Amino acid sequence: MKKLTSFYVCSAAAILLLTSACGNAAQSGTPASPPAEQRPVDQQVKNERTQSPIKQVPILMIIDQTKQEGFEGNMFYFTVEQVPEGYALAEMKWISDNHQIVSTYEKAFKNGATGEEDGFYISGNGQYSGFTYDDKMKGEHGQVVFVFRNDDKEELTWKQNITLK
């Protein structure tokens, strides 16, 4: 009987010790934060919105300097593959030691319709876009820059160094 009583006393002491240890963790002064899956939805959405749009969706552009059959002259094509949501192409620039050519989207669209001058162009349906240049610019090394803006006038840029062929 003494053995059975000792067993009950030890069991009760162990249970008391375990329950008191569990209770102290919550009373330590720092509230335990809920696991990620139990956080309120509002907090999860807020954290996602504060991330930079560039981290969410990068700008993807293609520059193609392949000589096209049926076209005489000097040019490269460009294609906007992906931009962060809410941003649109606003300006295109060619910057080198010898030239600085800046064109707005509207000017490039107009040039695509008329084809009157060298520089950036965008066709009427937006299917083709590129940059035409004079023979004197062949071999010129510079940077092509594309500026994207959102409704709040915030800008994102994409740049690439190239040599005109």
Tell me what the structure shows.
The chain has helices at residues 2-26, 41-49, 53-56, 105-114; strands at residues 60-64, 74-82, 88-96, 100-104, 119-122, 129-133, 141-149, 155-163. By secondary structure, the protein is an alpha+beta fold. The chain has a domain at 60-163: Immunoglobulin-like. It starts with a helix and ends with a strand.
How is the topology of this model organized?
Elements: H1 2-26, H2 41-49, H3 53-56, E1 60-64, E2 74-82, E3 88-96, E4 100-104, H4 105-114, E5 119-122, E6 129-133, E7 141-149, E8 155-163
Antiparallel strand pairs: 1-2, 2-6, 3-4, 3-7, 5-6, 7-8
Radius of gyration: 32 Å
Beta-strand content estimate: 25-35%
Strand order, main sheet: write it out: 1-2-6-5
Taking the alpha carbons of the first and last residues, their distance comes to 100 Å
- Per CATH, the class of the domain at 60-163 reads Mainly Beta
